[in-house]
Amino acid sequence: xxxxxxxxxxxxxxxxxxxxxxxxxxxxxxxxxxxxxxxxxxxxxxxxxxxxxxxxxxxxxxxxxxxxxxxxxxxxxxxxxxxxxxxxxxxxxxxxxxxxxxxxxxxxxxxxxxxxxxxxxxxxxxxxxxxxxxxxxxxxxxxxxxxxxxxxxxxxxxxxxxxxxxxxxxxxxxxxxxxxxxxxxxxxxxxxxxxxxxxxxxxxxxxxxxxxxxxxxxxxxxxxxxxxxxxxxxxxxxxxxxxxxxxxxxxxxxxxxxxxxxxxxxxxxxxxxxxxxxxxxxxxxxxxxxxxxxxxxxxxxxxxxxxxxxxxxxxxxxxxxxxxxxxxxxxxxxxxxxxxxxxxxxxxxxxxxxxxxxxxxxxxxxxxxxxxxxxx
Amino acid sequence: xxxxxxxxxxxxxxxxxxxxxxxxxxxxxxxxxxxxxxxxxxxxxxxxxxxxxxxxxxxxxxxxxxxxxxxxxxxxxxxxxxxxxxxxxxxxxxxxxxxxxxxxxxxxxxxxxxxxxxxxxxxxxxxxxxxxxxxxxxxxxxxxxxxxxxxxxxxxxxxxxxxxxxxxxxxxxxxxxxxxxxxxxxxxxxxxxxxxxxxxxxxxxxxxxxxxxxxxxxxxxxxxxxxxxxxxxxxxxxxxxxxxxxxxxxxxxxxxxxxxxxxxxxxxxxxxxxxxxxxxxxxxxxxxxxxxxxxxxxxxxxxxxxxxxxxxxxxxxxxxxxxxxxxxxxxxxxxxxxxxxxxxxxxxxxxxxxxxxxxxxxxxxxxxxxxxxxxx
Lengths: 376, 376
Hints:
The structure is a homodimer. Chain A is of the alpha+beta class. Chain A folds into 2 domains: 58 residues, no CATH class; 249 residues, Nucleosome assembly protein (Arylsulfatase, C-terminal domain). The first copy, chain A, has 13 helices and 6 strands. In chain A, the strands form 2 sheets. Chain A has a 4-stranded antiparallel β-sheet with strand order 1-2-3-4. In chain A, a hairpin with a 4-residue loop joins β1 and β2. In chain A, α1 packs across α3 and α2 runs antiparallel to α3. The longest helix of chain A has 50 residues. Chain A is flat, with a radius of gyration of 27 Å. The two termini of chain A are 47 Å apart.
């Protein structure tokens, strides 16, 4: 898996803080722009351009001319770089085929169709004895700790020792990965327990990829696969070629879910009482509204066909988040599923939530807290 | 330029916040680990392993066995992935050669050896008229604003209109890019004004790259080039192969700077008064200590030869920062120099400093602030 794509175009936001300090100095322009109803990002972009122009204006014309020559060279660079990224994408397509047999075997093991032999269960780089011992120690500790611990776990019944495959494999990944667990609602959980596999299909031309979610037969919908396609571009933008940073997702397509009657978790019906204006009689109407659900992932907002038309900023924000999730599923979830299941491969993907908390910890503080917890 | 390398191994720190909440539940282990003098990161890693083992222990043995089979598959995946990254590195080496003529022409223009012709100064994707008009408007504004503005700029004399090349091109990049400006001290500035070019040399086997800093003859040192070499590895670690995330820098080498007498900005002499214990007489001794300077970049801390020996955490932190800087110079500075000079390509690379500030701004707040600034 390469890490060369960026999800969404966050170029403007990247510049925000760098330019933050200078915004004040261009107050007049800012006021003008605010009056004309531009967004903050558009404003910052305009001010950045203005500052750029100001810096340029203070230079002698011949120096400005040379800078323009460097920009021409930069455009040539970007055109070559685009070819580099196309070659990387072709490599990714080639390697996806090499990974495929591994993914297929994984699916067979997870879903209990294939039982691995002893050789396949050896992890020679790992001290298995140590792992076994630790596991045994933990089990012993659980026994000696007695009733209290058992009560804690009373809600979850122990797993049937004769169970097939690895139950709830993908569901547990959803629970472990915060980017996914944040999307998952309580009513999604029984459906996601039927999730049997996630596959990526890479397409070389036009460059794009499809995420395929395979489900066991279930009472919620009749589909066996739900798909989400991400379309990418790997060419510098004609109007602002120097902003090119490699392939990026620019659009996505969902799929229709054939929900069984009364099982659609993405809508909820709300009842409303309406009073007749003149007669004063009251009637109750039911209205369907969108409900929070992971399955809204398959019904993303659509972009206007005209690439030049402006997209509402809330739609843009939704799509940016959606692109990030699609990118993350392709890059990490599919390729490292077992590590996300065990928790080893969990990244700091909830950076934002914990940033401040982390800052306020020093090594010593955290240590002291631990110790006092134990002494209680 | 690819973006496939990670600088330094920050795997442990990535897991910190994800595991933060669970640390409390493993207080006893934490206490034990703290007593044995491990660092916080090592502690979190140990607790993560313990939690992993606990989760494993609660599963029936046949399920645990299947998870081990998935880990074997994951190791196979990682071995194939390492080949993918090697191919990407080979591609990067190939493209570096394609970029080379552009970089060479850039150096000629920057240093005034070559004057670009009109065709080379065309930026057809950009509305030049608009840029010219804005530049003129800014100049006019500066004139009508009168004395006050002139006073502000009094410190910087206007540039000689017959100047050659683009004066202080690289020095201005150092000023604009916060990662570099933070390293630059006042005494470094006149030296960095002599910086004429930064080049990257890619090496295919063993995979590595060298940053070359070319200087005009100057009174500070006799070197014409200062070099910094970064050594990378692209193979999964034998003991923890599943942590593999692609090529990473693992070591770097600086170069000796032949400072002219009294010109070494990386050392400062401090005078100390010493009192003789018995005689009570006082003498003054001078002592050389390291001074803050960008040029310490060429004298990084060395790693112990034995890869298994532990590195002090402060040295490790210095090296991690150093690897990030080397990676950034290669990835962004060399390939996008003109955009960093003009300010267009500045990234949010001082994310950490501004994170909180950004959080506290809403679009509206910032807008109001702008307006009130103007009304003052």
